[in-house]
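I hope you will forgive my troubling you with a question about protein structure. The matter concerns a single protein, recorded as an amino acid sequence and a row of backbone structure tokens. Please examine both parts with care and let me know of anything in them that strikes you as inconsistent. Thank you for your consideration; the sequence and its tokens are set out here:
***
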Amino acid sequence: MAVATPKFGMGASVLRLEDRAFVTGGGRYTDDIAPDGVLHGYVLRSPFANARFSIASVEAARKSPGVHLVLTGNDLAHLGDLVSDSMAEQPDGTTAPTRDIPILCRDHAHYVGDAVAFIVADTRALAQDAADLVEIDYDGLDAAANTATALDPDAPLVWPELGSNRAFTYRHGDRARTDAAFANAAKVTRIEFRNNRLVANYIETRAAIGEWKPEEDRFVLTIGSQGVHSVQKILAGVFGIDRRNLRVVTPDVGGGFGPKMFTYREYALVMEAARQLGRPVKWTGDRTEHFLTDAQGRDNVVSAEMAMDANGRFLALRVRFLANMGAYISQFGADIPYIGATMSTGVYDIPALDVEIEGVYTNTCPVDAYRGAGRPEAAFLLEKMVDACARDMGLGYDEIRRRNFIRPDQFPYRTPTNRLYDVGEFDGHMTLAMERAGWSTFGERAANSKKAGKLRGIGMATYIEACAFPGSEPAFVELNEDGTVTLKIGTQSTGQGHSTAYAQLVAEKLNLPIDRVVMRQGDTDDLDDGEGTGGSRSIPLGGVSAVRASEALAEKIRRIAADELEASAHDIELHEGTARIVGTDRVISYADIARAAAAPDDVRASGEFVQDEATYPNGTHICEVEIDPETGQTEILGYTTVDDFGVTVNPVLLAGQIHGGVAQGIGQALAEDVVYGEDGQLLSASFMDYAMPRADLLPFFETGTRNVPSTTNALGIKGAGEAGTIGAAPAAMNAVTDALWRAYGIGHVEMPATPGRIWAAIRSADGR
């Protein structure tokens, strides 16, 4: 049995197959779709962060031109809430109650943007005009909008019946062992900071089209998502129907980053409106709605301490942090700080750990998974702490890391939070990154900057993350009568290049041109189940399954070809979309093989790889900056990454993932920040107020890998989708802090380190 070496297989730098359509206007997104007779919905949202309300009348709105339907919370008593099951066990063995999201609020709004009515009209503009005619009496109340003060005794209560804004309490580690280590420490370093809140700001805002098919007794929902099956399951629960009575379809998606994974209330609203009206109903959110209502990320207030011996060896880590959940518990919201805390010790051999997390409710938009989902928060905490420890001990940033890295001979290594790392060579990628970044000659560059009146700093972050969590993603392949191969899988591309990556893996096993592989995702009618895309799981799990399915199909192709060519299957070689007898010119095309199949299943195959443990990508990011002390302006002069992703499937796709992730991490470090006023009003609700990273903020990136194949994953792949974001924020902030420390002894600036904040810190330090 043989497969001739394909031109483009795993590891090849194949350009993205999907880009021709995207760059020539051939993409097809939810808002591009307009079913016959489609109506348009508009959500009326609360202008108050915390208010009791009553709807006096909707009659004027219903009589408004072009209006077909007005829905309020009282009209949706037959629908369930969007329920989260993400609460973990608390230290006392209990599980805290959730506060789930109603499809429409009934008598109380809990944040600005909370949905109170849904209007359907011939156009969005007419629906919006009618919304102004809904008569609502609001009784505005004091709001809790600040994470740091949410648990203060006099803080307004988001949910008064709970008696507190505490949502839950989690703990990791061994408190007694940690206390003992601190009691015997030669040195203790302490830090406090805020991990700023972020908005995902994908290019394509959310949209949804609901249709009711009475002849099929089912709904069709078209949305941009990160996986159709989870949405199907959740909405089937909301409507109390069998999930087979709901088809969910996702066309092209313009970015996801986590928040498009979730099920939002607008999806249920367009479905219910379509059922009542017997016509398709579309809702398309604008950018302001995105800022107000799409699940946001991060937002922690952290204090931490590291105990060290006299040589700078880490003895114990103690962490306390508040995690803002917003007004409700979103789909995975309570999981995010829990998962992040399991990565608290990072790449370091820290014997003892004590982490306590308190989730808090505030009158703000719910918080959930955003690129990295807890792991960026953990990495930022730890890498900021390690640099502070180095300064306190008088050690180099690289030296303190080397003294505390988990050594290669310690693997497999179980962390204090029960994570099991399989492999790792952390000093290796740090040393290589330092060489490529010119770490040893930084002093010369810093001196030149000083002569020019500028401050120069260099910072690093050595991170590890958990991704491709235990589970599977089955793949299904079929040889078609035109000689192409269709792959069906339950992941969802939101810009990553799945069509290209999967095609490489399938084409390598079947030896056919990669443009002969057709990927199908995003339709619950195609597959019974699928876990979607998130946590860098698609290629590590789905890719292995695709390889196994392709291997099984290759065997079936050989058997059919052997029958047609009157040969043994062991003598059949697959070559560029044909099967031939090795060493002869006797050949049969894949198209003819498909037509020769006695039954459809003869040219179909499936594969499933079940992974029992997460994979652990890791690496080093190094950032070099120059700061103008007169303005506080920061310029990034160089950025270097050396990552361990186990195996690289496609270097071009990998570079795109790293570049995008680093841009998002730098955005958090230097620009982005969600700001709420004391009354809960969102003060950063547009691009006029919320600073996104632009090209002029970013340097050219130097990226590279030093891979150590995973022993957990069948192909050695670890995953790469979130790594850039995880390493970037701490590397950039450590570089800024290094510059300020060298010149002024400033050891902390809050994120985002804007010119104003840096300028103020410098003025405070030099007494001006």
